Automatic annotation (TrEMBL):
InterPro entries: p53-like_TF_DNA-bd_sf (IPR008967), SH2 (IPR000980), SH2_dom_sf (IPR036860), STAT (IPR001217), STAT5a/5b_DBD (IPR035858), STAT5b_SH2 (IPR035886), STAT_linker (IPR048988), STAT_N_sf (IPR036535). It comes from the Eukaryota. Keywords: Activator, Cytoplasm, DNA-binding, Nucleus, Phosphoprotein, SH2 domain, Transcription, Transcription regulation. SUPFAM superfamilies: p53-like transcription factors (SSF49417), SH2 domain (SSF55550), STAT (SSF47655), Transcription factor STAT-4 N-domain (SSF48092). It is found in: Cytoplasm; Nucleus. Carries out a dual function: signal transduction and activation of transcription. Mediates cellular responses to the cytokine KITLG/SCF and other growth factors. Binds to the GAS element and activates PRL-induced transcription. Positively regulates hematopoietic/erythroid differentiation. Belongs to the transcription factor STAT family. GO terms for cellular component: cytoplasm; cytosol; nucleus; RNA polymerase II transcription regulator complex. Residues 574-671 form the SH2 domain. This is Signal transducer and activator of transcription.
């Protein structure tokens, strides 16, 4: 529904606020008759601070005037006659008002639309349940934009008053000098007493002085309005709220929203303009000293403005690209820092240098307490200095550290059971910014997210656990780097799900059933209801210090192994829903029991970190359910999961009932033609690697009475299809041929050969997989 239609339904105070938005600067009749056209224009796409956008603003002004003129021409009848005159008058009025400053028209209409939308939303949310999160964010943005509009208007009003004071003061000085000249004019005595009195009165310095006296104090009082409002906007809206929220969002690799940068730049521009106004007012007071508390008031306001600028500069010195939170020594890494208001405050005129150092958790605490920690570092970083660069096209001032490397690290004494992978450091970035031609100099510092330093890749798993726990459960405004030792299971579920989707790079996250499985594993509980775990707490020790019951690994190590194998080898199959994953052996059997033979599912191994196993149903004399020894990353580096499944022809259906080839055929490695396969290279024939399960071949043979349906993958050439193994012609052994004559010597010879083969050592990678 159009905003104007909803705005007309406002009542009470909301209606009065809406009506107050209109006046001579923009009549409400124009809004009413051109509502559809006004709401269809891209007012927000124009950058009011960019002079090059003035052309777009002029086009919008011309379009508005043309629409009004069209509307006026279409009015007929007696009532239409008066409306035609009124609309034509409004078209001329708007043309004359905004012809030289079309940006002001854009600013005006944006202000009106923002407030109309705010009033409509407040009315809707007041008569219905709580609005959606998107509505809440939109309202917050409208509130911020409204605050900036109010700041702009107050600042402009102050500017007008300052110009008025300057003109009045200059006029007074001229008149005062003229008065002194007349008093000493020789011909003054020749004038009549009445004429002389008239001229002296007209040029009386006292009358001009009396008229001038109120101006400086009124200006000083008005000047306090801008800094107070700007401080409120800076502290409550931009710096203490929105920017901190973005700094929390960066944990999820969030890029900097253009809105935040725009707000910070607008705030910097307004505050700096306030400071210039104060300086001009002080200059006027020096030119013509006036009794009263004006100088004290201006000095107080100037100090407030300086504090706000300091807060703005230090708060907007941010880390745009974080260094890796698991940092390996002697390994190159990168980071980017940025000053959001650098362009507006012309900091780039004297390009500052940024220095990066690594400090410990205790040193970070001391730094925030303003204790002296100068040159107190915990390691040495190579290539740790960088000059900030200004990018004219984007207006950004940033420093890109591209080739840093941690040469060495100095560790502190650890507490209790704390390991080296639980010790946290941080990268400190510091610089010095000059604002206003060295008029103001600020020392700025910012800390990176916590960093865990490792010296070997084997420590990466446990270091990642420390980082995950810190990122997920750190409270805003904490003392570095305090985190709770225990959290509720639902909190950990949310953190694991976010980490899982980010690491695997998949939109398919953890389902309710997956989380139940994880809870059963962590708490050693058999309940299948997620609600039963909602009140349970998980300690850091449970998460990654203590091994799971009956296992030699922690909960996190197992979960991280799952993510690793999915990320490296199985992501497409997980996204296709072809991997059930989070079920144990008994649950797999329960799912398969009523399915036809050849139905299989893939689940993550309980016995091996990063392992995935195949469970399938095939009813034989020996058993009904079969479980293949888990595959790991090493196995998939040799042959992919899809090809391994393609090798096993007795696996027919992916649970619950999807044909295997329908799910996996698009991932099969193309089979070379016979001529290419048989062709020798440098005198050698290229072999093929193929997945076989001898134990299952024997079981299926016993159950099937020699049927070849489930024996296509047996290692013996006698039961392998000719099409697949054309280089090995079928040559059945007469000993296994039921129709042939029995020969004892041949049988004993075969037995001796088998015994000899069994006695040989075998390469572990070629040992066939057995059931788990």
């Amino acid at each position: 529904m159009a905003v104007w239609i909803q705005a007309q339904q406002l009542q009470g105070e909301a209606l009065h606020q809406m009506q107050a938005l209109y006046g001579q600067h923009f009549p409400i009749e124009v809004r009413h008759y051109l509502s559809q056209w006004i709401e269809s224009q891209a007012w927000d796409s124009i950058d009011l601070d960019n002079p090059q956008e003035n052309i777009k603003a002029t086009q919008l002004l011309e379009g508005l005037v043309q629409e009004l003129q069209k509307k006026a021409e279409h009015q007929v009848g007696e009532d239409g006659f008066l409306l035609k005159i009124k609309l034509g008058h409004y078209a001329t009025q708007l043309q004359n008002t905004y012809d030289r400053c079309p940006m002001e028209l854009v600013r005006c209409i944006r202000h009106i639309l923002y407030n109309e939308q705010r009033l409509v939303r407040e009315a809707n949310n007041g008569s219905s349940p709580a609005g959606s999160l998107a509505d809440a964010m939109s309202q917050k943005h409208l509130q911020i934009n409204q605050t900036f509009e109010e700041l702009r208007l107050v600042t402009q009003d102050t500017e007008n008053e300052l110009k008025k004071l300057q003109q009045t003061q200059e006029y007074f000085i001229i008149q005062y000098q003229e008065s002194l000249r007349i008093q000493v004019w020789p011909r003054m005595a020749q004038l009549s007493r009445k004429e002389r009195l008239r001229r002296e009165t007209a040029l009386s310095a006292e009358s001009r002085w009396a008229a001038l006296l109120p101006f400086p104090q009124e200006l000083a009082e008005k000047s306090t309005e801008d800094p107070a409002a700007a401080a409120e906007a800076a502290d409550a809206i931009i710096l203490d709220d929105e920017l901190i929220q973005w700094k929390r969002k960066r944990l999820a690799a969030s890029s900097l929203d253009v809105s935040y940068r725009s707000w910070c730049e607008k705030l910097a521009e307004i505050i700096w303009q306030n400071r210039q106004q104060i300086r001009r007012a002080e200059h006027l007071c020096q030119q013509l000293p006036i009794p009263g508390p004006v100088e004290e008031m201006l000095a107080e306001v100037n100090a407030t403005i300086t504090d706000i600028i300091s807060a703005l500069v230090t708060s907007t010195f941010i880390i745009e690209k974080q260094p890796p939170q698991v940092l390996k020594t002697q390994t190159k890494f990168a980071a980017t820092v940025r000053l959001l208001v650098g362009g507006k405050l012309n900091v780039h005129m004297n390009p500052p240098q940024v220095k990066a150092t690594i400090i410990s958790e205790q040193q970070a605490k001391s730094l925030l307490k303003n204790e002296n920690t100068r040159n107190d570092y915990s390691g040495e970083i190579l290539n740790n200095c960088c000059v900030m660069e200004y990018h004219q096209a984007t207006g950004t001032l940033s420093a890109h550290f591209r080739n840093m490397s941690l040469k060495r690290i100095k560790r502190s004494d650890r507490r209790g059971a704390e390991s080296v992978t639980e010790e946290k450091f941080t990268i400190l970035f510091e610089s010095q910014f000059s604002v206003g031609g060295n008029e103001l100099v600020f020392q700025v510092k910012t800390l990176s997210l916590p960093v865990v330093v490792i010296v070997h890749g084997s420590q990466d798993n446990n270091a990642t656990a420390t980082v995950l726990w810190d990122n997920a459960f750190a409270e805003p405004g904490r003392v570095p780097f305090a985190v709770p030792d225990k959290v509720l299971w639902p909190q950990l579920c949310e953190a694991l799900n976010m980490k899982f989707k980010a690491e695997v790079q998949s939109n398919r996250g953890l389902t309710k059933e997956n989380l139940v499985f994880l809870a059963q594993k962590l708490f050693n509980n058999s309940s299948s209801h997620l609600e039963d775990y909602s009140g349970l707490s998980v300690s850091w020790s449970q998460f990654n210090r203590e091994n799971l019951p009956g296992r030699n690994y922690t909960f996190w190590q197992w979960f991280d192994g799952v993510m690793e194998v999915l990320k490296k080898h199985l992501k497409p199959h997980w996204n296709d829903g072809a991997i059930l994953g989070f079920v144990n052996k008994q649950q797999a059997h329960d799912l398969l029991i009523n399915k036809p033979d050849g139905t299989f599912l893939l689940r993550f191994s309980d016995s091996e970190i990063g392992g995935i196993t195949i469970a399938w149903k095939f009813d034989s004399q020996e058993r009904m359910f079969w479980n293949l020894m888990p595959f790991t990353t090493r196995d998939f580096s040799i042959r992919s999961l899809a090809d391994r499944l393609g090798d096993l022809n007795y696996l027919i259906y992916v649970f619950p009932d999807r044909p295997k080839d329908e799910v996996y055929s698009k991932y099969y490695t193309p089979v070379p033609c016979e001529s290419a396969t048989a062709k020798a290279v440098d005198g050698y024939v290229k072999p093929q690697i193929k997945q076989v399960v001898p134990e299952f071949v024997n079981a299926s043979a016993d159950a099937g009475g020699g049927s070849a349906t489930y024996m296509d993958q047996a290692p013996s050439p006698a039961v392998c299809p000719q099409a697949h193994y054309n280089m090995y012609p079928q040559n059945p052994d007469s000993v296994l041929d039921t129709d042939g004559d029995f020969d004892l010597e041949d049988t004993m010879d075969v037995a001796r050969r088998v015994e000899e083969l069994l006695g040989r050592p075998m390469d572990s990678q070629w040992i066939p997989h057995a059931q788990s």
